[in-house]
Predict the structure.
Amino acid sequence: MISELLNPWIRDLVPYSSARSEFSDRADILLDANESWEGGNDGVNRYPDPLLRELREEIEHVMGIPYDMSAIGNGSDEVIDMLIRMFCAPGRDSIMIERPTYGTYSVFAHTSNVAVVDVPLTADLDLDEEAIIKTIKEKKPKIVFICSPNNPTGKVYPLEKILRIAEVNDGITAVDEAYADFSEGFKSAIQTIKENPRIVVLRTFSKAYGKAGARLGILVSDPAVQKVFMKAKPPYNVSSLSEKAGLEALRDYESVRRRIEETIRRRKELSAFLRSLPYVSEVFPSEANFVLVRVSDAASLYSYLLEKGIVVRNRSSDPLLENTLRITIGSEAEMAELKEAMNGWNG
Ligand SMILES: *Cc1c(COP(=O)(O)O)cnc(C)c1O
């Protein structure tokens, strides 16, 4: 079933056989990969493990994602790009998104000459189930991207709704759960992959795990999809330094957990503060590490904050998001400075 959805040139691809994927047992003398025989003591004179075995074992151990269901991309960005290249034929196929949402789905579709079908969210920024299902039947997108919690709104969509959409979608339903860790009582789509192998889930080390600079994204999928991703990705797509950074976060999960708690606490605090401001008309309930807020004049508040050395994101050009700013939760000191600055603005 998955094989019918894949681009035939990907399905039939003969993967590059790297020196390290041919030989995986322990050996003392490695003269197989034309590497340098020295280069400092962090091991970067050697090529990284193309299978990212250590990291994926730790992901299974800490996150409970089975080893044969995980693959690692150079950030979720690479996972998104790869999914489009695996399933969408350039010049013929399309993906579907529900705007406003994360911008890279359409960017990567366009770099592959894949069309983007856009179904707007409802007025309360929820998935428009009826319109989505109608559009899926009409346009038959190869991949439906659903971002939950959504960026930039912070809204979690009910899993039941996502599953109903995935059920009628004959293509891939890619659920981007980049912000899942910040959502209390979050219901992940990961557990549903067993029943519907056309569902894939994206996770990342960039947010809750604190490793955005390492570029580590996780594709969680049926083993059939995972195998194809592994053969179609660039063999050494994730550096050994990045793998180490990921391992470090997983092995000190207690710190990650504490930071998540702290972030959620500050998010609630910031939301309450924003509601108290006279020029704020709406604070969108967020289950992510940011808050979207509607103000009297987003463009001039944005410039005012910039003058104070504070950068936020102006989302006002997105559909439904006129006069909104997206504010990331920062450190205690940063939040204090932000509040002081915002108190001093008379919008
Ligand atoms: C930040 C973010 C990601 C993470 O992307 P990386 O390439 O892993 O850093 C993925 N999806 C969404 C919706 C995001 O906001």
